[in-house]
Each structure stands twice: as structure tokens, then as C-alpha cells.
Amino acid sequence: MFGFFRRRPTCPIPPIPKDWVETRLEWLIEQFGADVFLSRPLVLPNRDILPEKFDDSDEAVRSLLDRICDLMGVESSEIDLRIVKPQGHDLHLVDGGGRASPTGFGGLYQGGPIASKRGRRGGRVSSRSTISLNADELINLIGLIGTMAHELAHHRLLGEGRIRPDAFDHELATDLTAIFHGFGLFLADGTRNWAASYDVWPGTNLKRPEYMTPPMCGYALAHRAWLCNELKPAWASQLSYDVRAAFKQGLRFLRETKDSCLAGLGVSGDA
Fold this sequence. Notes:
The protein has 271 residues and is α+β, with helices and mostly antiparallel strands. It contains seven helices and seven strands. A five-stranded mixed β-sheet has the order 3-2-1-5-4, covered by helices on one side. β1 (79-87) and β2 (92-94) form a beta hairpin. The protein is globular and about 55 Å long. The two termini are 26 Å apart.
């Protein structure tokens, strides 16, 4: 009886970003395969990924990056690493060789010439790339792993020639690629990115974030749970409050309406 008055579920994000999340997830499945998103376990902030001892030395950071390379499907030999530190009062960041980088960044990706050509059957030739990390990132392992996953996602997209650097959504797509490869719990914790500048969605006057917002992260993760028929995944308890709220709302919306271009893809008949 009381179910009659239950409010119809709604999507936690507006129609335009909703369509973007769904169509980009569909595109990522075409690029990397559905198994990467649906069959691999999510990377959890536990001993499987967090070093037992992390002394923020170059060796420790490199070892962690190599581990994330493996999980992201990147050959670690393709990635050079440099750590940059604030110097003096000039608000410049420089590495040991005196090369400057913008302040306020968590990580920077610099790829070789986009001469990478990806075969239609998945073969690829990747350019050599450099990932630069702000030394301030090293005090927060969760945020550091999220930053590394984001920068390696740049390599999967830009370094492998899958997306153009001038694509309007290339930072958004980079965030989503890291989530797609199992690092959603770490990306969802990257609150510093959500304060970034806003542009507009093409053809509209609606604001578009440069990076994925908490509701967008929650909705993307809701697709993972929905398509895998996970009613109450244990990992959801580790999401921050705002991401978890969007995740729960998104999961209920998807389960009850099936209103997504990915409907029918799931590993169970429920999706």
C-alpha cells in the first residue's frame, strides 16, 4: 500500500551530463572491452595497493606508479616520472633539472608526439610519456593514487592516440577512464579537482566542469554496480558522503527505470 506513494526515482545528474557519462562509458567499452569495467575487481584502498611502508622516496613513488601502471594496462617502461617541488616565494615548481611547471597542479602528463597508431583490432604503438607529480601529493596516499591513475589514463587516451588533446571533454574522459579501469574509489576522493574552472557543454549555456563532479562519479559507479547486479556492494561504504548519495540514487534510478544506453549490457538478466 505504502509503495504506491513511493516517489519515482530520478537521476542524480542533469540530462546532458547523464548522456555524456553513458555515451563515454559506451565508448570506453568499445576501446578497452566490457570486461575491464565489469569483470575486474575494483581497486580498494587496502594492502593490495597501499604500500605497508611509504617513505615518499623517489624509489617508493616509482614502485607505486609501476603497480598502478600494471592495473591500468600500461607498460611502466613507457612512463618516466619526475617529482617537482615549490621553490622560494616565486610560486614556481621546478624539478631537479630546473624545469618549471604551473603551480596548483597535482599531476601533469606530457606525452611524446601523437604518432601512436592503434590498430582496429586493438594493437597499439605508444609514445613515451612523462608524468610529473607535485611533491605535496605525497602526503596523501589516496589522493596520490587517484592522481597517478588520472595521469596514466591520459597515457591510455592521448599517448595511444584514442582521443585528441583538443577534445572538449578530454579531462572529463580521462577521469572516467581511470574510473573505468577500477580506480573509482580513488578518483571520487579527489575533491581538489572538483573546484576547477567551468566551461559550457557544447551547443548549450549549461556549465560544464573540467573534471568529474561527485554526482558524476557516483552515477558512473552506479553503472558498474547495476550492470554487475550488485544491490549493495561493500565497496560503496568507502565512498565519501556526497558521492555515496549520488551512487545510491543513481543505482535505484537505473534498476527501476533501466534508462541508460548501456541497458542490456549487464552480466545478469536484471540489467
